[in-house]
Design a protein that fits this description.
15% strand; 7 strands; alpha/beta; two-stranded parallel ribbon; 299 residues; globular
């Protein structure tokens, strides 16, 4: 269980810290002194690769206060080039995207009552320099999408599905998917509107994330940012996929997406993090365009 490793213990008392392997998690003295942020849980990704733990039942925002330490940092020049690519690409796309979004907003309003934009808390990370060197510090941000569901839809069905997906419970996933096979996405979701089905199939609902990219919360390419209740179910080794800035598209999206298991998704995200380069980012962007137009794996 997460509790057996001290994961997410808000007290971080002596008993909890004794249960945590020193090589895996620790709290720096400088972080303890920062009363604004509180004590931080430092997970050394170099040591958790072979660590496994059964996730506990959700019990709060356990990702808060977590730093991920890794040696797998691309050179600073890569991050400068990646940021420049993000900003330039968004500025080039915005003149075309804005009128499209306005037309889609009208279609959404005519189709069902409710706001045009859907805001959701997601988990990402930012690079910070600590006494351990460059570290990925987990943080939440407001993730933007065009609304594709009926307003105030019950999110519990998705939470149940993601719990089954992460744990590999094929039976429960099949039940929630109403028996539809050959995909790991939720088919026949009654919460999705008529317009929403089209937006999802063509990934047009993702257009507002251009703002998330412009303000630096996301990048064009990177692991997709999870919802907090998904991270609650992660084993320590699964946290490795969060060791980068999250993206609009990524290696997982162009290599399976809804046709992959959770373990395969983790493996694809980690493969991207190991190979991260501007060339690979451009390759993923070029592969994303035809995949989006064909609606492969979307939904």
């Amino acid at each position: 269980m997460w509790e057996s490793t001290g994961w997410g213990n808000p007290e971080l008392g002596q008993g909890a810290m004794e249960a945590i392997p020193d090589r895996m998690i620790g709290v720096s003295e400088s972080s303890r002194a920062n009363l604004d942020e509180g004590p931080r849980i430092v997970i050394d990704l170099r040591d958790v690769e072979s660590t496994t733990a059964a996730p506990a039942e959700p019990a709060g925002d356990r990702w808060r206060g977590v730093d991920l330490v890794s040696d797998d940092h691309p050179r600073p020049a890569y991050w400068l080039a990646k940021r420049a690519l993000d900003v330039v690409a968004v500025l080039l796309v915005v003149p075309v995207a804005v009128p499209v979004v306005l037309l889609l907003a009208l279609a959404i309003k005519l189709d069902s009552p409710g706001p045009v934009l859907f805001r959701q808390e997601r988990i990402g990370a930012r690079r910070v320099r600590t006494d351990r060197g460059l570290t990925w510090r987990l943080r939440s941000f407001q993730f933007l999408k065009l609304r594709t569901m009926y307003h105030d839809s019950d999110p519990s069905i998705h939470e149940q599905y993601m719990s089954a997906y992460i744990s590999g419970d094929e039976g429960q996933m099949s039940d929630i998917r109403s028996g539809v096979e050959g995909t790991y996405k939720m088919e026949l979701d009654p919460r999705i509107t008529r317009v929403g089905k089209t937006l999802r199939r063509l990934s047009l609902d993702e257009l507002p994330q251009l703002w998330n990219i412009l303000v630096g919360q996301m990048s064009i390419v990177g692991p997709r940012p999870p919802i907090p209740y998904e991270v609650e179910k992660y084993a320590p080794s699964d946290l490795r996929r969060l060791g980068s800035i999250p993206g609009l598209t990524g290696w997982w999206q162009v290599n399976g997406r809804s046709e992959t298991t959770f373990e395969e998704m983790i493996a694809l995200d980690l493969e991207y993090l190991r190979r991260q380069s501007l060339g690979l980012d451009l390759q993923i962007i070029l592969k994303t365009l035809p995949a989006a137009l064909e609606g492969r794996g979307a939904g």
